[in-house]
Each structure stands twice: as C-alpha cells, then as structure tokens.
Amino acid sequence: MDKRPSNQTPAAPNPSIEGSVFIASDGTKKILRRRRPLLQVENLTVVLGGHTILRDINLTIRRGETIAIIGESGCGKTVFLKNMIGLISPSEGRVLFDGKDIATLGDKELTETRTRYGFVFQMAALFDSLTISENVAFPLRQHRKDMSNREILDRVRSLLEEVGLNPDVVWKKTPSELSGGMRKRVGFARALAMEPDLMLYDEPTTGLDPIMSDVVNQLMIHARDKLHVAAALVTHDMKSACSVANRLVMLYPNARLRPDEPQIIFDGTPDEIERCGDKRVLQFVRGEAGDRMREL
Amino acid sequence: MFEKKTISIEETTFWEKFTSYVGSIGRWIADYCVYAGNLAVFSLSTLFWLFAKPPRRDGLTSCFYNIGVLSLPVVMLTGAFIGMVLAIQTYPQFKLIGLESHIGAAINLSLVKELGPVLAATMLAGRVGSSIAAELGTMRVTEQIDALSSMGVNPIHYLVVPRFVACLILIPGLTLFADLLGMIGGAVLSIGLLQVDWSYYWDWSRRSVDLFEIFAGMSKTVFFGAAIALICCHQGFRCGAGAEGVGKAATSSFVLSFVSILFLDLMLDVVIEAIAKLN
Description:
heterodimer, A: about 300 residues, alpha/beta, Rossmann fold, 6-stranded mixed β-sheet, 4-stranded antiparallel β-sheet, globular, B: about 280 residues, mainly alpha
C-alpha cells in the first residue's frame, strides 16, 4: 500500500540514490531509501590460466568508507582490486560501480566511470617518458578539456604540495630520478588529480622504509578524512591496514579452502580482528609461521 | 611371463609417447589459432581507434621521429651496401656472357622490386619493431598500460595507433631512400671500379625500371609497415612477466615480423605479377 501523502511530487532522480527523492508537504526533501553503495561486488569468481583465484566473493564499499583487503601473497588481493576497476573481467558474477555493471559498459561510459577512480599502483606505474609534472597532469590533459594550461599547471602544483613534494624540485625530473617513496607520492598525486570517488591502493607501503610507510599512511588518512574519498586498500602491512581502514576484509587462498568454505574469512573492524576466533586470521595478524613451515 | 610383461610396458610407453606427440601438435595448433585470433582482434581494434578518434599530435611527432628520422641512416647505409654487393656479385656472371653493360638493369630492378622494400622493412622490424615490443612490454610489466586504462585512456588508441600510423606512412619513404642509395652505390662501384660504360649502365637501367615497378615495390612496403607495427605492438601488449618476458617479446616480435614480411612479399608478388600481365 502506498503511504505517500497525495500532495507529494516526485523530484528528479539522483543517480547515487536508490529509489526516488520526494518533496514532503513541508517542502523538505525526503530520501525514501538509503543511498546506494558506491561499489558492490556480487558473486565474483575469477579464473586465470585454469586456476580459480577468486570464488563467489561478495563485498560492498559505501561512500566515504575505507576497507583494507588483507591476506597472504597469492590469495588474489590484487586480482580482486583490478576487478573492481574492470582491468580484469570476472569469469562469473559482477562488479557494480554506482549501480552500473562495469563489465557491460561501452567505451565512452567506461572512460567516464574510470575517471571517478584513482588507482595507486604497487610500483607507482609512472610513465617513464614523461616528467613528474606531466605525469600528474596526464589525466587532466586527457579528460579536462575545460581547463586551461595555466589551471592544469596550478592544479599539478597544488597536488604535489598536497602529497608533500616540493614542485620546484621535482617538476622537471623523470620518474627514474626519484626514490621509491617519492614515486609513490607522485602516483598518489596523479590518482587524486581527477578528484575520484573511489581510491584503489595496491600495496602502497610495500618496499618503503618505516618512515616513508607512515607518510603514505598519512596520505591515505588525509584522503579519507579531508577529501572524504572511499577507498579499497590491498596490503600485507597490518599497521597500515589498522591505521587507515574502517573495515578489514581477509581473503584466504582458494586452493587451500574446502569447496563449501567462503573465501572471505574475516570481515570486520580493526578492533574485532584481534578478538577473532579463526586461527588462520590470528596467524596472519600476528605474523606467525605456524604449520606453514612444513610447506618449505 | 617376464617377457610378456616387458612387451606390455614397451607398448604402453610407445602409445603414451604417440598420444603425447599428437597432443603436443594439437596444442601447438590450438595455441597458434588463439594467437592469430588475438592478433586479428587487436588489429581490428587498432583500425577502429584509428578512425574513431584522431591520434594525439605529440604522440605522432615522437613516433615519426623515432621510426622515421632515426631509422633513415641505417636504412640508407643498408641500401648503399646492398647496391654495391649486387654489383660485385652480378658483374662476373654478366661478363661471362658479354652483357656487362646490362648490369645496371639487374641491380636497379632487383633493388626497386625486391631488395629495397624487403631490406627496408627488415631493418625497420629489427631497429624499430623490437624496440616497440620492448618498450610496450616494459610498460605492461611495470603496470603503465594498466595505469592508462585505470585513468580512462584506451591503451590501443594512446600507444598503438601513433606507432601504426608512423610505420604505415614512413616505410615507403624509407624504402625510397634505400632504393636511391642502393642505385648510387651500385652505380659508383660498377662505373668507378668495374669500368662499365656509364651511358650504357643508365640506359639499360632506364629501360628496365619503369614507374610501375617502382610503385609496385613501394605499395608492398605499406603492408610490411602495417604488419610490423601490429605484430610488434601486439607482442608488447601480451608480454610475459619480468625481464625474460620483455626479452622474449622483443625477439619474437622480430622473428614474427620477418616471417610475415617474407610471406606478404610472396603473396603480393603473385598479385603484382597478375596485375602486370593484365596490363
């Protein structure tokens, strides 16, 4: 039965909201259903080279939420992250970004959708042939035809400052002239250039010293708290995961699971993971070899 | 009983070997069918993006410089030496039958019809093709191609189309220079060193090499250029992991390009001869 008052009139639908917005009798807008999650992964299965890497994964990322995907090497974390942006296609299941199945999008829609992502790669993936400023300006030059050259350069300067780099020092350098930590920060600046809704971090602290790891963690916290960007962080680094993420999701290698066991063996807050009863989760959190030594 | 058992083992081993051999042939054929299919899809995608969106001017300029300007010296040098080698090789044979004044026709016709186009294409495959495969392979391994995709930029449009256009447009020009230097090299050696009369040399050359031969040679190179660009870019895009993967991509790109150049040369010669007969 429809309980709407007769004087309510439908407003223009907001694409980020499930259902409709209605204007009540007092003139205020009422959202009848809660906001749609930014990213939904439904029954995702990925088979690569005959091996099932991911099996029947379900996950939701809400707006403003930062989740950390943890798990041992080879459990499919990076494959999962690349599925979220459509760099790898699912064998079964689907990934919905703002309600749209990214595997079924046409070229134009996919391009538009991807500009709403920011991807920080493990080794930064900066373009060797471009200078640092050109690398950061790259997405703006490709997609922001409304921006003048002056505006783009100003934005690049402010992005480099935002990630703690001196634009005057790094401006004309090439990626090979920078340290690993600096390259990661440039990659971070490039990922933020398009003001994304969802950041994807692929092991951003791997290979960095503890100080530089903390710098990268602070940058991720800055993106979460100041820019209110949702994020999925893939990492082995428990310190990084617990300090940056609101929620931890632990994947277990499919090859070691029974067919009836779910591949996500933990989904909860950083506080809850310490109290988790699953010994596989605790073994990873505490970094204990346990019976895994026998594999050697 | 012992002998019976031995025979049984030998039969099984032979059967296993046979099935394994047939299986490996089947796998090899299947792999090549998959490769051909992938290459066809990649080529169609390149053609689609070529017409869907014009390539970037800055990307084209750097490709034109790398593929055209930097290849010119090596192509010209190769052409000049081939012209001289042809003169050295053909002169004794022609002298035996008293036709040494016809040597210019043999050198220049070989250069314009076959050696110029094929050698320019081979040099391009070696110098540029391997470099394209290694560059794109490194971009694949270091996730730069994934980075392009993640930023909403189509890697085929951004990376492949400029290289394809540059190879397609520049290879006829490079061939022209190879032909020219080959003709000069052959003439210098024949007239200067082997004492062939220059007027006969150029007269027989002019009579045997007409515009159709030059055009036929040039038109073949467009196909060679397209094959080199597509094969080498495709090898770079499907590069395996690590330094070994990049090395394999660079090597296989040259081998596959070279084989395709020879195959295309044969096919196009058949077509050109058929057209020549019609005329």
